[in-house]
Write a sequence for this structure.
């Protein structure tokens, strides 16, 4: 059981905080610039809210900085905890931004789309790193207490995973968003597409996505592509995305055909 | 209980055939140009395989043409069943391509990524259409016997749904494919991304995708975008897709900022 101070009150702070609390760790304080948010999360975590840097206790084992990427370093410099462990939760930020604030530091990066209200049982793979072996061991134990999937990953590996996550999450979600906007304007129910979207995701457990690439672009069905493009004449962004990705997917087949 | 002849032995023929069989309909024949495939599917459906057009019985209530979009019309002309119901399963093909082969015809379009080996309980929304009211009623009953989600949709509506499906399925799968190829080349496990992909799909049940658009492009995080682009220098296609979609997602925020 570790004593933890959580800095931040957003999605990562809330989800990780709940998991740490449920695993039996003591969240001794929750820091939030906004008092109300700090109080709310502290209430959930049986913890104490603070909104001033000077109020933060120096007795915790771990200070979890679950804040926006671009303020991690700044926040860490507010903490006067030279011999305690500072941990940030960002995929694309080096662990070394914490090196000025403490000798012991590390990373706990959840490769998941965290929302405050998400199902507690949702799998959250964690990627960890640390300043030294002893600190890594402690962060590993902490990570294992809240996730079944814990992997050590250095700055470069985490950044690469983050790039892959942008494609898997941000870009696929953008496709769903375009489909939803289109359905709304065309008086179709986007919910009709949810079984298809779920199946597309689910079957990745059994089949690599390269084997599931179907549709008009994949089979070179120019007639259907042309009809689709006509339907998108009033949707310039969608049409542009359609044409761009159709060209990219068509290239895959050319590569296959020529054996490249 | 209806007597059905299934034309085709691919994914749609197999999945719909299994569901029809399980619902108590009689699959009196399975036609497949390839004898082995016809035998295999007929075996699954307690049916009789045929591989010659002249062997097809004229006594079925419904002839289900689960074949590739571009051969539906040609296949229908092989069937000498003027007063029987012909049904195709394509999203982007007009019902009228069947009008030469019979007076009664229609469509049963499954808005799902069908695979022979898919879970029997996977939801398969069906979109139906027909030449006349009486035929529509029969196809509706048939559809309701194998799916909880049945909607009447004319040629234009089905084509629009198909466009939305291309974004939701083909294009999102292409994002997964790029992520998988990248992981493979960078010695990272694509399976680490599956919980994220599943959560991205699952949460659409509660949150519209427009509210789930996160990531560096969405928050205008130029520093991270630049680092990601550098990581993709050896992956020209991925880099191009990254830059294209990052620009598109960034435009969303500009629209929000200016109130458009």
């Amino acid at each position: 059981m570790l004593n933890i101070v959580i800095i931040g009150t957003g999605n990562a702070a809330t989800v990780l905080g709940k998991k740490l609390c449920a695993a039996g760790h003591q969240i001794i304080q929750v820091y939030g610039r906004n008092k109300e948010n700090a109080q709310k999360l502290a209430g959930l975590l049986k913890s104490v809210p603070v909104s001033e840097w000077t109020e933060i206790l120096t007795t915790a084992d771990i200070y979890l900085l679950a804040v926006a990427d671009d303020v991690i370093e700044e926040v860490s410099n507010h903490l006067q905890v030279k011999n305690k462990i500072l941990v940030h939760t960002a995929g694309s930020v080096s662990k070394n931004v914490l090196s000025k604030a403490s000798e012991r530091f590390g990373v706990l990066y959840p490769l998941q789309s965290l929302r405050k209200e998400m199902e507690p049982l949702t799998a959250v793979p964690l990627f960890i790193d640390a300043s030294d072996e002893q600190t890594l061991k402690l962060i590993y134990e902490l990570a294992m207490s809240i996730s079944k999937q814990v992997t050590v990953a250095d700055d470069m590996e985490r950044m690469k995973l983050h790039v892959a996550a942008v494609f898997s999450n941000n870009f696929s979600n953008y496709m769903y968003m375009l489909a939803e906007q289109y359905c709304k304007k065309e008086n179709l129910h986007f919910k009709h597409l949810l079984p298809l979207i779920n199946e597309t995701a689910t079957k990745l457990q059994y089949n690599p996505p390269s084997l599931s690439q179907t549709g008009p672009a994949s089979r070179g069905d120019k007639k259907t592509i042309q009809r689709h493009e006509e339907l998108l004449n009033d949707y310039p962004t969608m049409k542009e995305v359609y044409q761009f990705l159709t060209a990219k997917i068509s290239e895959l087949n050319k590569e296959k055909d020529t054996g490249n």
Q: What stands out?
A: DSSP finds eight helices and eight strands in chain A. Chain A has a mean pLDDT of 95. Strands of chain A lie at 3-7, 26-31, 49-50, 62-65, 85-88, 104-110, 126-130, 150-152. Chain A touches chain B through 87 residues (CB under 8 Å).
